[in-house]
Each structure stands twice: as C-alpha cells, then as structure tokens.
Amino acid sequence: MEGLLDGLISSSSVTTSEVAYTLDKISDTLCMVADSGTFCQNVHTNPSMVNSAARAVAMMHGIINKLNVSKELYQISSDAVSNRGDATQEEYIVISKLKSEFEHQGVHLPSHQTEELLDVKESIHELEYEYQKAVASSPKTVVISEINSLPPTLRKKAFPVGQKGYGLKLTSDAASQILFHSPNAELRKAVHTALNSPANDDHMLVLEGLLENRQRVAEILNFPSYFHSNNFNRVMQDPRDVANFLEDLSNTVSVKAAQEVELLTEVKKVISQNYRDQNKEEDDHVIYTWDYLHLESMALNSQPIVSSAKFSEFLPLGSVLEGLRIVSESLFGIHLRLAPLGPHEAWDPKVFKMEVLDTDGVTCLGHIYMDLFWRPNKFRGDANFPLRLKSIHSDGKATIGFVCNVVEGTPTLVPVEDAENIFHEFGHALHSLLSETKLQHASGTRAQMDFVETPSQLMEFFFWDYRVMSTFAKHFQTGETLPRELFDQMVARKKLFSGLEAQEQGWKSAMDLVFHSPPGEQYFGTDSKDLSAKKILQIAEDLHTKFKPKIISQGNSWNGKFSHLVGYGSFYYSYAYSRQYSANIWKNLFQENPFSRQKGEELRRNMLAYGGTREPPEMMKNLNISKIET
Predict the structure, then answer these.
(1) Which residues fall within 8 angstroms of residue 451, CB to CB, at 6 or more apart?
(2) Cα–Cα distance measured from residue 326 to residue 474, given in angstroms and rounded to the nearest whole number
(3) Cβ 629 vs Cβ 455: under 8 Å
(4) Residue 287: which H helix or E strand, with range?
(5) Is the pLDDT confidence value at 617 over 60?
(6) Largest CB tally within 10 Å, which of 7, 392, 610, 629?
(7) Helix axis angle, 203-220 to 533-547, nearest 10°
(8) Cis-peptide, bond into residue 411, ω within 30° of zero
C-alpha cells in the first residue's frame, strides 16, 4: 500500500483513470482488513481472536483517519476531478465521491486542528466499541416480592434474596415469558424496569461521551451538526427534511395506532377483571410500556389467526434457505451451492459457506459465510457484513458474512420474524453480489445510506407473497405446503399492530435525529443543546410521548441500548425512508409476477448493478418508475 501511495504522490503525469484506480486499490486494501476485523470482533468464538481483531480494527481506523486528511491525496483527487480526461463515468463518480469525502473529513484544517480531529475520532472509535459491549451486556437479575407471581417454569429458577424477596436472572427466555405471558402487572413492570435500565454505571456516560465527541467532530469541521458532517452520502441532506418526513409518517399511522390502542385497552379491562388481586394499582384505561407485549400477545391469541409457533412448523431452516435459492434463481438466473471449507476457515462448527454462480453456472460472483445460529457472546442482531466488495481488485467476487441468531433445534424451526430477517439480509447480499462496478468504493452496499435498505426491504415483499412462500414453506413432518388460509392469518397477524410498530420506528428515528442535529435547533419540541446522560434519557422520554402518545412509559421508555447508533448514527430514518422505494419497485415490477425473469433482469441491470454510482431518482426512472408514492 505504501508503494501505491508513494507512486501516486510522486508521479507528475497521472491520469484521472489511474488516480481512481490507485485510490480505490488503497481503499480496498484497508477495508479488507478493517471489515474482516469488525466481523471477527462480532462473531469469533476465540476471545484472543476477538481481541486481536479489535486491535487491528483500531489500527486501521487510525490509518484511514490520517489518510482522510492527507492534503497530497486531496490535491491529486481535486486535480483529477478538474481534468476528467479519459476517465469513465464510474471512475469520475468515484473520484468525485472521494474528493467530497476528503472535504467532509477535514482535509482543509490547519495542523493543530487536524491533530485534535484525529484524537477525537480515535475516542469515538473506542466509545463505539464500549457502547456496543454495553448493548450486548449480560442479563440483569430482577428482585420480586413473591414467587407465586412467576410462571411455573421459572419458579424453580428463582433464589432467595434477603428475607422478603426472590431473585431471578433475566435471561432472554425468562424476560420473554414474563413480559408476554404473565398477567401480573407488578411483575411485568419490575422486569421491564430492570431491562430498561442502563447496563452499568458507565453505560450512559459512554453514550454521552460518544454523542459529545461526534458533535465536537462537526464543530472542528465547521459543520452545524454531526448529521451535516455526514450528508455527502445520502438522499436527504437537510435534517429538517428528515424531521418533516418523520412528522408525515407519524400523522399517517396515527389513526391506525389509536385503533390498536383501543383494542389493547379492551383486552386490559378483561385481564384486570380476572386478575384484580394481582393488579390493584393498575388503571384499566392506561396502556403502559410493560403492558404492551402481554396485551399484544393476548389480543393476537384472541383472534382467529394462526400462532407464530404453528406457522414456524412450515419454516424449517432448510426450507427457508431453499426460498432464497428459488427467488434468486427465478429473478436473476444465479445459482447457490454449498462450497467446501478449508482448514481453520470457519470459526464455529455450524458455519457453512455458499458459492454464488452467475447465469452460466460457471462464473463465480462471490461467497457467503452463513453463521445462522445463536450462541453466547455472538453479535445479537441479524446482519450482512461485506468482508470484501466485488471489484477488479477482488477478481470480480464479493465475500460476505451473513449473520443471524436462529435458535437451533431438532429440527430447527424458524420463527416467522427470523425467516423474514433472513430474506431481508439476503437482499443486502444480492446487492453486493450483483453489483457490476469495477471500483469497490461504489460497489454494492456502498450506496447512499438512506437508499441502501431498498434491496433488502424488497426481499421482504417476496417473503410475504403467498405465490413465493408456497414454493418453499413445507411442514417439517408431513411435507404439506403451507395452506393459503394459514398464510392469510399470519399476514393479518402481522398487520394487526403495524401502526404501533411504525410509531416505534418513528420514535427511534426521531431520537437518532435529535441526538445528531444542530445544538439549540428545535426538532419535535426538543433539541441537542444538552446531551448529558440525564438529558439524553429525558429526550428519549419526550419523544416517546410525542410519537407513541397512547403508550405511557413513566420514565421507562428507553435504556440507552440502541445498537443502530453505531453504524447508522444520524441515518436510522433510512429504514422508513427506503421503504417507499422498495414498495414502489415491488408494485411496478413484481406484484403481478414475483418470478418474472424479465423484471429481475431489469432490476439487476438498472439498479443493483450500479451500486453507489447512480442517484436513486435516476435508477427509479430507469425502472420506469417516474413517481414515488409514499
């Protein structure tokens, strides 16, 4: 890499095309280490490997931050933009993006401010790592007054605490049993409060430091806010536009959400009558945050609809993976097949590798490492990790880490939410695999941050189409195809509380926006002028009241565990924003025929192939979608 740098800086006659290639090669080299290290940090089973990966990632971040303020590299990229010469459109777009990134990363600063900027960015990296550890922290212990309030399966796991109480370790299973199934409101409140408390004494201080340092970066760079310092790779570049979008979203779902709360209230009245002795302090007409999961579960069970457990009998893991094969082969003609693992290539015995071949059955588009099962100390969410993006530097192959947390069984039956997430994450993988850019800096998922969820959300539409699901959803014992009646019931179940789910997403998006907006500038009646630990929680509470007005939290709305603040900081709204693109693509291309090879080729050629080298409006126009319906 040093040879590439020295050669580029010392050369007196280098073309724009050569500049683009060389800078992209440097970026590919650094990202290959940093991205693989980040993946290793999150999934490896060997603690020494995790620690080594953490050190490598920190080292790479330091190198990247220093290169981002290199005046020599900026001048070279600036000259290349001014003298396009023989550069292709893709090369010119990439070099223009790099020039813009230099300008947003502080290349213009004097040396003393550059040093401060690098120090603050190093602190941010350390704080993000500490914050992620807090988010994934071990479960707490909850203290309850009497053991009979526990579900029978948990009573034997309780242990005496003092003379008048019992303790229970809040594993995810124990917490779910209580919050979903216990009629005792006091017990649910105790569990909810324990879960919605900071992981430790330093947790909120870490978040406070993270947000303060992000704002400090913006100040050093002379931007109004952290949002503005990151607006070079997004569609909506003004936080006020995002605020207006979230306000519109809130207004759109408010009526349905209110109807859903009315249903929950009726359910609570019935429960309160039956368990009056256990809920003496509860108001029948108020839905609290610790009520929601229990009342939702009771409401769903009262409806003539299939249970999630019954539905999962038609979703054994092998069938879900077969669904990915059917969709990708039908739309794009590509082939998925198992590939052998070399010695020490896998970090867990259950990891397997898939090879993805193009339409000719020979050309390799890339490999996917499938790490699908839950285990302790593993990344808690579902995610697509681009280990190396497809480009001329990687021989035209992508390498992807595919992470889910399905609970293994005999057989492994996948809850419908997890199956949907598998389809979602595979949409990200397809974005990388089907990209046709030569340069990795704009390959696949290196697209605009508030557009990048579009392919993954589009895959959710395929999952929830009976014509598609019926091709792979087979009963694990009988092989029976999922009946249409059960599918329709599950769709009804999914939609029953969609208004409140949209409010939840709006609330979290609003939190993220306020945390990264200009200090003192009002959004939704609050601002980021004070981001002390106490004020952060108050902002979360105030926004909860605005976006979820019918669900009362009493100060227990949030525990500071919001993993998307790392990776999606100031971009969380993109989940809601991208959905308008994916919904329009589905309606215009695939609603009539979800297996259309012709429409799949149009999607591949006019959107997926471009990665981040085209703006979303242009790609939508190429798909003959002239108007985006929200």
Answers:
(1) 235, 574, 578, 581, 616
(2) 14
(3) no
(4) strand 287-288
(5) yes
(6) 610
(7) 90
(8) yes
CA pair distance 17, 38, nearest whole angstrom? 31
Among the listed residues 403, 516, 384, the one whose alpha carbon sits nearest the alpha carbon of residue 457:
384
Q: Burial-class residue 112 by CB neighbours within 10 Å (0-12, 13-18, 19+).
A: exposed
Distance CA 473, CA 495 (A): 20
Q: How many whole angstroms separate alpha carbon 250 and alpha carbon 243?
A: 10
Residue 101 DSSP class: H
End-to-end C-alpha distance for the chain, whole angstroms: 46
Compute the distance between CA of residue 371 and CA of residue 381 in angstroms, rounded to an integer: 12
Give 66-107 pLDDT, tens digit per residue: 999 999 999 999 999 998 888 999 999 999 999 999 999 999
Q: In this structure, which amino acid lies at residue 474?
A: K
Those residues whose C-beta lies under 8 Å from the C-beta of residue 413, and which sit 6 or more positions away, are 312, 313, 315, 316, 317, 476
For the whole model, what pTM was predicted? 0.91
- Confidence category of residue 556, pLDDT binned at 50, 70, 90: low
Dihedral of alpha carbons 285, 286, 290, 292, sign: positive
Tokens of 431: 């974005």
Q: How many helices (H) and strands (E) does the chain have?
A: 24, 10
pLDDT tens track for 133-171:
887 776 678 888 878 878 888 888 888 887 778 888 887
